[in-house]
Amino acid sequence: MANFAFADNHDQKQEVLDAAKEIVKEMEEDEEVPLNDPFAGNEGTSSSANIPQDEQDNEMSLYNFKLAGLISGKDYSYISLVNSGGEVLTMTLGQYLGEIQLVDLRLTEAIFKKDDGKFMIIDFNNQVRESDDY
Q1: What are the tens digits of pLDDT across the range 66-77?
Q2: How far is it, in rounded angstroms, from Cα 97 to Cα 55?
Q3: pTM recorded for the entire structure
């Protein structure tokens, strides 16, 4: 048979409450953390200098996305793209991203076809390139 005894110690409760208030005060005084990683440089973002003029204002431009994931299966294949707001867009072969269509994928890149017959290829290094064939 187990015996339990409970004791209420009001002094310890006040000490814990005071310690919690001190932690909250320290957290409020902490310096602001930047939204981006200052050590990443420009590597994690696409340079606006590399974006063609006609693509800069188009929010559905492939240049505004990063390739985040790629799943290739026997029957279906998918890619995941992430925009600058952190929203994930999952696509399957044949779907359109704006005016370009996802037509193929490889182990490290996704291939889109433009209306003019040229291809746009995005890889995991956030490099977007245009090509006449793939």
Answers
A1: 999 998 888 888
A2: 13
A3: 0.60
